[in-house]
């Protein structure tokens, strides 16, 4: 009985230990610490206060450099300096909170200020005598704001007037930690003793270091594994799971016998000349890209397929009847080997000249390798996602080669080590909300109010730079935007990590822009954001000018007719 009790207690301890990680969906992915995004945009390194508002913006209160708003892409500063004479706020930020009507209350070394997010104006609170006090803490309720300063508890109404003050010995306010917070997506942000911000980030990728020499691989291998003598110039080596090696050389294709590994490789077919890359099929046929004859499908002593236009393939991978090809000019091509039709998938995958080092298909997902990223592509769902070195822990400098066992495992060789990759896409929360964060014209840059869907432009603001965000600060490189003007049939797709739309030569009147985005998984959201831009007319474009011009024309016609009759 005693042993059973001890066993039950031990089991419960294990279960309760695992519950937090299971609840987060992160049972096999450990967090790692990375620098805060956009840290290079901070003009000062000393952050004193961290805060996330209800919209999802991150705010950084600086020791002597004012306040910064971070939308994941750009930082916008709010501070008193000669460039911003309208801001009279003390730049030494001590604490932050947000009230029930989406305004920020900014406690500083000298006084309390209100930042109204409708127009992003800043003004001091009502009692001038309290503006010389240091605000150590601030907290908002539904209809009041509480501040602790100079050993006093101050109570403000929503108009910024101090309605009560009470002397207290200790700070009675229980506020959100200014040094460490957890954002809405589960990432923990913290400030160290030097004021440097870092983020404890849960990634959607698990790495496991492996030794490739012990694994059966079904993919392109390093040329050093060819087994051919030095007189052959080897360009490509394909390894099959049964141990067979297909070797592309400057004198055609050779094949090894897995049952007799010490035997000299035999040549397959005629001398195809210089072979750039190759991939075999299950029936023993091979697909070869040659320097002289282009792309060839060879089977049973005959050339079954031939595309003489393709001479610059870097890698081939056969998946059933689909032959995936990466080229030296940055294309991703898909050949239907049964009908020998070719589709260019470059634009759909946003490969505008990006040269891929390799391609393979694992469990219906296309993997494409670049030096500084790995792209995954689901053709049926049109889902594209990128994996960067910063998504991995430890973080490599670059990628060398992708491998697979021909089943469901994927391996990536980096500059020093090789890892098995497991994607935990379910751990990435969907980001469905598009936020219009601001715009810039020749008259300057403007932040916009909460949930803005319309802006009015002056007559001289005909070129406008628009900024959007999903407020997914740790995944901006994985999010992709697209836009079109209302009535257009074609969407313009922005590169990954870009959130800017530039419109030029706008005419007077209303223009409706539609914007959509992916989440961090690469899935396009169905919610489309609409923004109306109302451009004011020049004087010669106004309705009164047209009315006046018509009246003038009528008068001139009448005067000409009257003058003609008078002189007749």
Structural write-up:
The strands form 11 sheets. This protein has a 5-stranded antiparallel beta sheet, with no helix packed on it. Helices cover 8% and strands 41% of the residues. It is mainly beta and 568 residues long. It is flat, with a radius of gyration of 32 Å. The chain contains 2 helices and 46 strands.
CA(first)-CA(last) distance: 131 Å
Helix/strand/pairing category:
mainly beta
Q: Main beta sheet: strand number and arrangement?
A: 5 strands, antiparallel
Strand coverage percent: 35-45%
Radius of gyration (Å): 32 Å
Q: Which range best describes the helical content: under 10%, 10-25%, 25-40%, 40-55%, 55-70% or over 70%?
A: under 10%
The general outline is flat
Number of helices: 2
Q: Tell me the number of strands.
A: 46
If you average the pLDDT, what whole number results? 87
Please mark out the parts with pLDDT under 50 across 5 or more consecutive residues, or reply none.
1-28
Neighbour order of strands in the largest sheet? 18-19-20-21-22
Task: Give the oligomer, counting copies of the same chain as homo and different chains as hetero.
Answer: single chain
Keywords:
568 residues, mainly beta, five-stranded mixed beta sheet, 2 helices
């Amino acid at each position: 009985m005693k042993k059973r009790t001890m066993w039950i207690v031990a089991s419960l301890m294990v279960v309760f230990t695992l519950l937090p990680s299971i609840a987060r969906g992160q049972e096999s992915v450990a967090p790692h610490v990375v620098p805060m995004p956009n840290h290079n945009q901070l003009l000062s390194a000393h952050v004193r206060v961290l805060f996330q508002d209800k919209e999802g913006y991150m705010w950084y209160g600086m020791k002597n450099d004012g306040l910064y708003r971070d939308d994941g892409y750009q930082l916008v500063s709010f501070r008193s300096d000669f460039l911003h004479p309208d801001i009279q706020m003390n730049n030494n930020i001590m604490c932050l909170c947000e009230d029930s009507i989406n305004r920020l209350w900014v406690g500083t070394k000298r006084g309390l200020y209100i930042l109204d997010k409708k127009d992003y104006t800043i003004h001091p609170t009502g009692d001038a005598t309290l503006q010389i006090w240091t605000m150590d803490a601030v907290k908002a309720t539904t209809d009041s704001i509480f501040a602790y300063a100079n050993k006093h508890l101050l109570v403000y109404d929503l108009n910024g007037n101090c309605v009560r003050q009470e002397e207290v010995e200790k700070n009675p306010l229980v506020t959100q930690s200014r040094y460490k917070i957890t954002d809405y997506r589960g990432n923990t942000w913290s400030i160290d003793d030097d004021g440097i911000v870092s983020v404890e980030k849960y990634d959607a990728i698990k790495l496991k270091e492996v030794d490739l020499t012990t694994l059966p691989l079904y993919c392109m291998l390093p040329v050093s594994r060819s087994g051919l003598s030095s007189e052959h110039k080897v360009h490509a080596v394909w390894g099959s799971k049964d141990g067979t090696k297909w070797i592309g050389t400057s004198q055609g294709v050779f094949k090894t016998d897995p049952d007799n590994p010490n035997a000299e490789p035999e040549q397959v077919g005629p001398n195809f000349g210089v072979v750039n890359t190759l991939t075999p099929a299950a029936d023993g046929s091979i697909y070869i890209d040659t320097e002289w004859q282009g792309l060839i499908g060879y089977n049973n002593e005959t050339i079954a397929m031939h595309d003489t236009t393709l001479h610059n393939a870097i890698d081939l991978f056969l998946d059933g009847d689909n032959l995936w090809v990466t080229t030296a000019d940055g294309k991703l091509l898909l050949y239907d080997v049964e009908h020998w039709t070719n589709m260019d998938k470059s634009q759909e995958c946003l490969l505008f000249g990006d040269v891929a080092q390799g391609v393979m298909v694992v469990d219906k997902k296309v993997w494409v390798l670049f030096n500084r990223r790995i792209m995954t592509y689901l053709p049926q769902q049109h889902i594209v996602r990128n994996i960067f070195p910063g998504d991995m822990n430890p973080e490599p400098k670059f990628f060398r080669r992708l491998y697979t066992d021909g089943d469901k495992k994927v391996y990536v060789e980096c500059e020093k080590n090789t890892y098995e990759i497991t994607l935990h896409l379910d751990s990435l929360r969907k980001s469905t909300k598009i936020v219009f964060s601001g715009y810039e014209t020749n008259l300057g840059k403007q932040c916009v109010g909460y949930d803005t869907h319309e802006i009015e432009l002056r007559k001289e603001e005909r070129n406008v730079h628009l900024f959007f965000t999903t407020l997914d600060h740790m995944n901006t490189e994985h999010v992709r935007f697209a836009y079109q003007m209302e009535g257009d049939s074609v969407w313009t797709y922005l590169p990954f990590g870009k959130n800017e739309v530039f419109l030029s030569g706008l005419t007077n009147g209303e223009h409706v822009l539609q914007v959509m985005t992916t989440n961090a998984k690469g899935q396009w959201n169905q919610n489309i954001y609409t923004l109306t831009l109302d451009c004011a007319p020049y004087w010669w474009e106004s309705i009164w000018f047209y009315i006046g011009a018509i009246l003038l024309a009528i008068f001139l016609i009448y005067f000409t007719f009257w003058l003609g009759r008078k002189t007749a």
